Amino acid sequence: MEGDVVEYRIDRQSGIPAYIQIVRQTEQALRMGVLRVGDKLPTAREVVAATAINPNTVFRAYRDMEQAGLVQSRRGLGTFVTRSLARPGAEDDSPLRAELTEWVARARSAGLERDDVMALVTAALDEHEHRQEHEQEQEEDA
Fold this sequence. Notes:
The chain is mainly alpha-helical.
C-alpha cells in the first residue's frame, strides 16, 4: 500500500497531544483491520501536509509505535506495519460490527452526540468488567 490506508485527523480542541492522537488512530486502524501487517503508513511529509502539524510530532508518534513493536521504519522506504491488533468481530462484514453500527445509528437518532455514545459504551464496558470481577471473587470464595 502507498500510505493511503490511514488518514490522520488531529483534533486541536481535544487537549490530547497530536502524537498521541496519531498513535491512537493507528491502533484503532490496526484493531479494525484497516491496517494490516505489511501496510505502509503515510510519510511524515504526507501527514504534515494533511494535518499541518510539526514533522517532529509525526516522528515522535512513529518512534513510539516502533518501540511498541507495531511498526518498523525502513530507511528510504517508509514505515511499515509489523503487528496486527485485529480481533475476531472487527471485520467490516462481522455480525458484531453490524449490530454495533445499527445501535450507534439508533443512539444518534435518539439525539446522542458522539461523546454521549462513547460515555454509554464506556459505562457498559465498566459495568461488564465490574460484574465479571465480582463473579470471579464469588467463585474464589466458594
